[in-house]
């Protein structure tokens, strides 16, 4: 089973972005695919596609390996793998729990410093003002094996892609995602 939602957040910023569309697919029982398209042409500030994780109790461990992160908590883990864009690294910052979803830096937030960790993927070409971010987020019970992801096709134009096609193997099924322009096509060996 799959659930889908899309949102347009380009007007959420003091100077509206040209485009900020987030698309999220949840494939039951345990992973999300997130595709963010950001076009910040004509705006100032570094584009940040970061996320914030809970650290109020000091029990969050984060391990970085290439384009992937493993976020470990006492009872479960979360694995995030960025399929696009090519990344230089992840910046790790002390943060506030309410510091999620800010695409441009230097915006005011509430909360206490140190109650969260903010991870910000840094694209290989930070000067680009139009970027696609595609990531797969896998919820893992302790000892559970993460989904297997393989990029099948990639045609890129700087930090935004023309076509991105990838397969995810999970639970005995294979899901194939094809993102092209603003369109997405998903098929599964499970029959949907």
Notes on the protein architecture:
The chain is mainly beta. The protein is built from no helices and 14 strands. A 7-stranded antiparallel beta sheet has the order 1-2-3-10-7-6-5, with no helix packed on it. Strands 11-12-13-14 form a 4-stranded antiparallel beta sheet, with no helix packed on it. It has a 3-stranded antiparallel beta sheet with strand order 4-9-8, with no helix packed on it. A hairpin with a 2-residue loop joins strand 11 and strand 12. The mean pLDDT is 89.
Distance between the termini: 8 Å
Total of DSSP H or I helical runs spanning 4+ residues: 0
Segments where pLDDT lies below 50 for 5+ residues? Answer: none
Question: Judging from the principal axes of the Cα atoms, what is the shape?
Answer: globular
Residues in helices, as a percent range: under 10%
Q: Which band does the percent of strand residues land in?
A: over 45%
| Major beta sheet summary | 7 strands, antiparallel
Mean pLDDT: 89
* H and E string: EEEEEEEEEEEEEE
How are the strands of the biggest sheet laid out side by side?
1-2-3-10-7-6-5
Number of strands: 14
Structural class: mainly beta
C-alpha-based Rg, rounded: 17 Å
């Amino acid at each position: 089973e799959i659930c889908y939602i899309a949102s347009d957040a380009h007007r959420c910023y003091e100077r509206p972005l040209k485009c900020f569309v987030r698309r999220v697919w949840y494939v039951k029982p345990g992973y999300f695919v997130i595709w963010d398209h950001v076009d910040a042409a004509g705006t100032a500030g570094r584009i940040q596609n970061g996320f914030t994780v809970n650290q109020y109790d000091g029990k969050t461990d984060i391990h970085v390996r290439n384009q992937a992160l493993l976020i470990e908590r006492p009872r479960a883990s979360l694995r995030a793998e960025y399929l696009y864009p090519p990344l230089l690294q992840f910046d790790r910052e002390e943060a506030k729990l309410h510091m999620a979803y800010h695409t441009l830096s230097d915006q005011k937030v509430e909360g206490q410093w140190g109650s969260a960790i903010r991870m910000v993927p840094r694209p290989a070409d930070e000067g680009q003002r139009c970027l696609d971010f595609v990531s797969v987020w896998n919820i893992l019970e302790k000892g559970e094996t993460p989904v297997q992801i393989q990029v099948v096709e990639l045609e890129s134009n700087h930090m935004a892609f023309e076509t991105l096609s990838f397969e995810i193997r999970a639970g005995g099924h294979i899901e194939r995602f094809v993102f092209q322009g603003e369109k997405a096509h998903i098929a599964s060996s499970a029959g949907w």
